[in-house]
Amino acid sequence: VNLSNDPEQDYFSDGLTEEIISSLARLKGMKIISRTTSMQYKGIKKDIKTIGKEIGAGYIMEGSVRIQGNDLKITAQFIDADHDVYLWAESYRGNMEDIFDIQEKVSLKIVDALRIQLTGKEKNELHKRYTDDSEAYQFYLHGRYYWNKRNEPGLNMALQYFERSIAKDQSYALAWAGLADTYSLMGEFTNISRRALLSQQMKAVNRALELDPQLPEAHISLAISLMLNEWDWKNSEKEFKLGIRLNPNYATGRHWYAEWLLYNKKFEEAFREISVAVELDPLSQGI
Predict the structure, then answer these.
(1) N vs C: which end of the chain shows fewer Cβ within 10 Å?
(2) pTM, 2 dp
(3) Going residue by residue through the chain (287 aa), what tens digit of pLDDT does each one get?
(4) Concatenated DSSP letters for the chain?
(5) Can you give the three-state secondary structure of 25-53, one letter per residue?
(6) Distances (CA, A) of 132 to 96, 216, 248
(7) Residues in CB range of 281: below 8 A, 6 or more apart
(8) How many Å apart are CA 180 and CA 229, to the nearest integer?
(9) CB of 65 within 8 A of CB of 13?
(10) CA 211 to CA 208: how far, in whole Å?
């Protein structure tokens, strides 16, 4: 939650939530509830056990952000939902330039609390940074905040913020993937046709993959473009499978792959895939 006096800072608290989810979702041994469902509980007064039962989560993390100027205070608590017991609680102070270090510390604390043994590759994933530019990062968080609104005004704002993020850091693969995802959704939520947006979408997704060939979001974005624009069933399936393998917890990827299976009359597999998406994001209306 955002404890700053300025409601405009909601983008930062929401974005920080999403970034920690994304970071932990890369660990193969963990099932992480997705952003859409997590955000349904923002500001809701329910006890931890009830929330855990409603969404099938054994552990819950809650926290707050307070921003004053460039100063930052983040609190985080990690709770055993079955027993309503706090496993740890900490506060972190710093400025915007420290946000990447704080995110890493929080993710590693959760891993330690769950006594998970990480492989060398997984340790690298938790320490991976897509940008070192805190301003580019804040623009990216703004972009995802508006992208998640799933409406035309929100997508127009998202477009502006992703472009500003890229202007600050041309090598920011996640911002390029966000730009591609925005063009993709604009084909659904605006009067602009998919065909008219295709060249910009493909430019963005190809740039994201050029910068980071292992970026799950970019592979899923490419897959949906190949499926809906080109009807290229073979290559879109390949991209869906690769994106899901890179991040098995990406509910949107499983949702869209279930649609691919449905279009190709693989009904049992489609039901299995969408069921996994529901487990990962049980309160998502779209899923």
Answers:
(1) N
(2) 0.74
(3) 888 878 778 878 887 888 888 888 877 777 888 877 888 888 888 889 999 999 889 999 888 888 888 888 888 898 999 998 998 888 888 887 887 788 788 888 888 877 777 777 777 777 777 888 888 988 998 898 888 888 999 999 999 999 999 999 999 999 999 999 999 999 889 999 988 999 999 999 999 999 999 999 899 999 999 999 899 999 999 999 999 999 898 888 999 999 999 999 999 999 999 999 999 888 777 78
(4) -B-SS-GGGHHHHHHHHHHHHHHHHTSTT-----HHHHHTTTT----HHHHHHHHT-SEEEEEEEEEETTEEEEEEEEEETTTTEEEEEEEEEEEGGGHHHHHHHHHHHHHHHTT----HHHHHHHH--S-S-HHHHHHHHHHHHHHTT-SHHHHHHHHHHHHHHHHH-TT-HHHHHHHHHHHHHHHHHSSS-HHHHHHHHHHHHHHHHHH-TT-HHHHHHHHHHIIIII--HHHHHHHHHHHHHH-TT-HHHHHHHHHHHHHTT-HHHHHHHHHHHHHHSTT-S--
(5) HCCCCCCCCCHHHHHCCCCCCCCHHHHHH
(6) 11, 20, 26
(7) 33, 34, 35, 36, 37, 251, 287
(8) 13
(9) yes
(10) 5
Query: Is-contact 287 274, C-beta < 8 A?
Result: yes
- For residue 90 the two structure tokens come to 């900490």
Residue with tokens 């069921």: 275
Task: Take residue 115 and report the two structure tokens written for it.
Answer: 């006594």
CA torsion sign for 219, 14, 108, 79 is negative
What are the tokens at 87?
A: 């496993």
